[in-house]
Design goal:
Elements: H1 2-14, H2 20-31, H3 34-45, H4 54-59, H5 61-74, H6 77-90, H7 99-127, H8 134-157, H9 171-206, H10 210-235, E1 238-239, H11 243-246, E2 255-256, H12 259-284, H13 292-303, H14 306-317, H15 328-331, H16 333-362, H17 364-367, E3 387-391, E4 398-402, E5 408-419, H18 432-435, E6 445-449
Antiparallel strand pairs: 1-2, 3-5, 4-5, 5-6
């Protein structure tokens, strides 16, 4: 240590006689922690570089790797970050920053998903006369949890260095970033489960069959257990809880479960549950009395949600180094991006059937059918119930004839035409066919004789 101090004193004395490049190098060396300076002098002793040759030190990758390995073993985490920042600045390493892109994705998708939910709810409350269903309440709850996540992503993680290299940040920023990330992790587990509940209650409303409803209720129960279990485990994954965001510097004591295993298991179960939930509506298509083109259309409507499953699968790649990264503010950027996309796109997909009904009303010639009823919307999401229009048919007639005696027989025939608006969300699938197979449909005509 005395040798190091003597060397520093000598270098400081030489600074006035050095050029600008050497002065910057010597100033940087003075700013290094003692443990890092020892690693640097040891590595330079066996390298072709001189302590005052900045260009050689910055270009020698073997020297830098040797110093970095030594610093990791000999210095604290905080000292390692100071050393990395000093050397990166000295060698004019580019400053990486992906925060603006994440901020745009987060705010943009957050506004769109919130608008979709509000349009869905306001349309049903203002235009239609039916009360909100469980699927509506759970999509609202998803939004209630999603808005804080959007705010925390912007003002918590991104504002404290997400998308930047950790060595460019202050220690307080690193702690604040990990604390915000912890809250986001808990919210993510809750939002994913609640969003699935909204879709499941939507299935429960449109599928009247007893067997499929039992399957849906079983899936609902599993989803509730899945969500509660992971939220509780996420909250108490470290003991004490604060050790989650203080453990990074290696100066605090505590224990945590395998955080990587927690993230991977949640993603695997969530993807499997998504595939199961996709199979529920598709399994009902075989029972529908529809033309194959209409079946394809209905199937594609339900398959829109597979995009969320694809995003969940892509998110798995970002979990490879989820808890073991030495540069979490940079490496966990992808986790935040895919989580943000997954949640907001899921909300948008859950609102698409209701938004389609609204668009059909606004643009009937483009999205509607050629036959529409004039009856006001009274069904859920503003859909048309079957309207009955009584019209005399071409063959409707009144006949009078004289029979034997003074008896007169009058025969009156009236035809009832039943029309269904194609803009009814539920009528996209003839759910009555699922509820009572073999049950005859109501007759389109009736005759009354007097």
């Amino acid at each position: 240590m005395k040798t190091l101090l003597s060397l520093l004193c000598l270098l400081s004395a030489l600074i006035p006689f050095c050029d600008a490049e050497q002065s910057a190098l010597l100033s940087a060396i003075e700013a290094l922690p003692n443990c890092a300076l020892e690693c640097l002098t040891t590595a330079i002793a066996v390298s072709p570089c001189q302590l005052t040759n900045q260009t050689c030190i910055c270009m020698d990758s073997t020297l830098q790797a040797s110093v970095e390995l030594c610093v990791t073993k000999s210095c604290t985490v905080r000292d390692s970050l100071v050393t990395k920042n000093t050397t990166a600045t000295l060698c004019h390493a580019p400053v990486r920053d992906r925060a603006p892109l994440l901020r745009s994705i987060n705010i943009g998708l957050g506004v769109i998903s919130a608008a979709c939910v509000l349009i869905r709810i306001l349309y049903k409350l203002v235009v239609t006369v039916y009360e909100l269903g469980l699927d509506d309440y759970f999509i609202l709850l998803t939004l209630v949890c999603g808005v804080p996540q959007t705010i925390i992503t912007d003002r918590g993680t991104t504002a404290n260095g997400l998308g930047k290299d950790i060595w460019t940040l202050k220690p307080t920023q690193v702690t604040n970033f990990i604390r915000a990330f912890y809250v986001m992790e808990v919210l993510y587990f809750a939002i994913v489960a609640i969003l699935k509940l909204s879709l499941l209650f939507f299935y429960h409303r449109i599928f009247p069959g007893a067997n499929v409803r039992r399957v849906i209720w079983g899936t609902i129960a599993f989803d509730v257990l899945f969500g509660v279990a992971f939220v509780v485990v996420a909250i108490f994954q470290c003991r004490p809880i604060g050790y989650y965001w203080t453990s990074w510097d290696g100066q605090h004591s505590g224990t945590c479960i395998n955080i990587n295993a927690l993230g991977w298991s949640n993603a695997a179960i969530s993807i499997t549950l998504d595939l199961w939930m996709l199979a529920i509506p598709l399994s009902q298509l075989v029972h529908l009395k529809l033309a194959w083109k209409k079946k394809v259309g209905v199937g594609l409507m339900f398959c829109v949600g597979t995009f969320v499953t694809v995003v969940s699968i892509l998110r798995l790649q970002s979990l490879v180094h989820f808890a073991s990264s030495t540069n979490p503010t940079w490496d966990q950027w992808a986790v935040n991006v895919w989580s943000t996309v997954e949640i907001n796109v899921g909300i948008i997909c859950a609102c698409m059937p209701a938004i389609r009904v609204l668009l059909v009303r606004l643009f009937p010639r483009v999205l509607g059918t050629t036959a529409h009823t004039n009856q006001q919307y009274h069904a859920k999401y503003g859909t048309n119930k079957a309207s009955v229009q009584a019209k005399p048919s071409n063959s409707s007639r009144g006949e009078s004839s004289l029979a034997t005696g003074n008896k007169i027989a009058i025969t009156y025939t009236q035809t009832f035409e039943v029309q269904h608006g194609d803009n009814d969300m539920t009528r996209l699938v003839e759910m009555d066919d699922l509820g009572a197979k073999g049950k005859p449909k109501s007759s389109s005509s009736s005759q009354v004789s007097a």
